[in-house]
Amino acid sequence: MQLIDTHVHINFEAFKDDLDAVRERWREAGVVHLVHSCVEPEEFAGIQAIANRFKEVSFAVGLHPLDADKWTESTGEQILELASSDSRVVAIGETGLDFYKADNVQQQVKAFTSQLAIAQKLNKPVIIHCRDAAAPMAEMLREFWQTSGPVRGVMHCWGGTPEETEWFLDLGFYISFSGTVTFKKAVQIQESACRVNSDRLLIETDCPFLAPAPNRGKRNEPAYVRHVAEEVARLRGVPLETLCQQTTQNACDLFDLSEHK
């Protein structure tokens, strides 16, 4: 049984003392590949060093919406250059919109649309963070398609309603579920997990955040993606093996991971 954790932040301070042990646990859990996300381009060298250390790590480069105030004209050039510099860069991001913790709408929109253009230029998927912003996000993506053409990617750590889920499926996006799908009160997330087409479904931890039950409240780590897989399989009424097989294939398709495994 093979699993791919499509969104990790193992470069964070929480992992500085025991990353080798964390790796042993993810391998024991059947995790064969990780996609390491990026909060800001300054993380690139550190993430690249982790990929040098662990051959099963691919990664992204981008600027998170909560760091959108750091965006300058040169930021886009930097992301483009870094994304072109290493074949293990499989995505642009994470980028997107977050109106839950910030209200700098104009700056977030500028950073996001610029990164969509970079992803399209490089023919790479985009990893999208979307919190309290589903309607404007869908509208921006539709507008981008109309003016610039299609872009592909994933709505990561998805927390939207089933209706919002349909918007992004209609736009061709993959939907990724994290440990939040295991939370008892996360009814709309669980309903959304049942709505996604089997060929657009992904799983992730978003570690070190949002540890799934039965580890809620603890540091999250890639091995725990198995708990996400188990819950999504239960919700969808499919065998765990089937769910693992499908989400692993989907991750390979979206991020073109065949040469990295």
Explained architecture:
- With 261 residues, this protein is an alpha/beta fold.
- The chain is built from 9 helices and 8 strands.
- The chain has an 8-stranded parallel β-sheet with strand order 1-2-3-4-5-6-7-8.
- Helix 5 links the parallel strand 5 and strand 6.
- It is globular and about 45 Å long.
- The two termini are 15 Å apart.
Shape: globular
Distance between the termini: 15 Å
Total number of beta strands: 8
Radius of gyration based on Cα positions: 17 Å
Across the major sheet, the strand order is 1-2-3-4-5-6-7-8
**Helical content class:** 40-55%
The low-pLDDT segments are none
> Structural class per helix/strand content?
alpha/beta
Order of helices and strands: EHEHEHEHEHEHEHEHH
> What's the multimeric state?
single chain
How many helices? The count is: 9
Mean pLDDT: 96
| Content of β-strand | 15-25%
- Major sheet: size, sense and barrel closure? 8 strands, parallel
Could you provide a short overview of the structure?
The protein contains 9 helices and 8 strands.
Write the layout of secondary structure elements.
Layout: E1 3-8, H1 19-28, E2 31-36, H2 44-53, E3 57-61, H3 73-83, E4 89-98, H4 105-122, E5 126-131, H5 134-148, E6 153-155, H6 162-170, E7 174-177, H7 187-195, E8 201-203, H8 225-236, H9 240-255
Parallel strand pairs: 1-2, 2-3, 3-4, 4-5, 5-6, 6-7, 7-8
Helix pairs in contact: 3-4, 6-7, 8-9
Spell out the key features of this protein.
globular, 9 helices, about 260 residues, alpha/beta, eight-stranded parallel sheet, about 40% helix
